[in-house]
């Protein structure tokens, strides 16, 4: 009589944790320090036609000057929603509406703004940590199921340690990325 159990899919767990790290790095790209960049608007979502849509899918994003972003909204009815999304985004940019064009002057970073951006970076990092811990929790559920299906206890322990080690490594990557980004933000 052989016992049938399914081992946790470590590759899938690693892939999902790597995805959380990649998403964090993309969010960090949106936190430009004093220079305008179209990627600053990537994480911003606007309610368009009943669904949350990335801001760059309701208009054309341009960077005509080092300290200015323009957003040319395609549909006039979306201008006020886009402006509202920009104001509530936490970027600390005051949009100026001119017809269907929204201008975003990028202010010189003062000490207070640097601290705000540092806090935004910390919240992005915390979201990544939560995502990684959720993947770990999923792995532990797979492990629990395998144990109830007959996985030997010593093998279960090895898998448990592997998943925990992978989680710790990814959390450390998040912490290192956050430290680097905060250092970059605080440079004058």
Automatic annotation (TrEMBL):
Gene Ontology biological process terms, A to Z: cytoplasmic translational termination
Positions of the Ribosome recycling factor domain: 24-186
A molecular-function term among this protein's GO annotations: ribosomal large subunit binding
GO-annotated cellular components: cytosol
Principal location listed in the UniProt entry: cytoplasm
Keywords: Cytoplasm, Protein biosynthesis
Protein task: Responsible for the release of ribosomes from messenger RNA at the termination of protein biosynthesis. May increase the efficiency of translation by recycling ribosomes from one round of translation to another.
Similarity remark: Belongs to the RRF family.
Descriptive protein name: Ribosome-recycling factor
Organism name: Aliiruegeria haliotis
Lineage start: Bacteria, Pseudomonadati, Pseudomonadota, Alphaproteobacteria, Rhodobacterales
């Amino acid at each position: 009589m052989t016992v049938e159990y399914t081992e946790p899919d470590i590759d899938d767990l690693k892939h999902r944790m790597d995805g959380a790290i990649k998403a964090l790095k993309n969010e960090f790209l949106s936190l430009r320090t004093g220079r305008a960049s179209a990627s600053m608007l990537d994480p911003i979502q606007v309610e368009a036609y009943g669904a949350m849509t990335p801001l760059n899918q309701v208009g054309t994003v341009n960077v005509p000057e080092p300290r200015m972003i323009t957003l040319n909204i395609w549909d006039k009815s979306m201008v006020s929603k886009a402006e509202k999304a920009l104001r509530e985004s936490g970027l600390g940019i005051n949009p100026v509406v001119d017809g269907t064009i929204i201008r975003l002057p990028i202010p010189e970073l003062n000490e207070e703004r640097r601290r705000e951006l540092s806090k935004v970076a910390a919240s992005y990092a915390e979201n990544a940590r939560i995502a990684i811990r959720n993947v770990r929790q999923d792995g532990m559920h797979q492990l629990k199921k395998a144990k109830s299906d007959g996985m030997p206890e010593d093998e279960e322990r090895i898998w448990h340690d592997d998943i925990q080690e992978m989680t710790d490594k990814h959390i450390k990557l998040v912490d290192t990325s956050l430290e680097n980004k905060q250092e970059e933000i605080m440079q004058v």
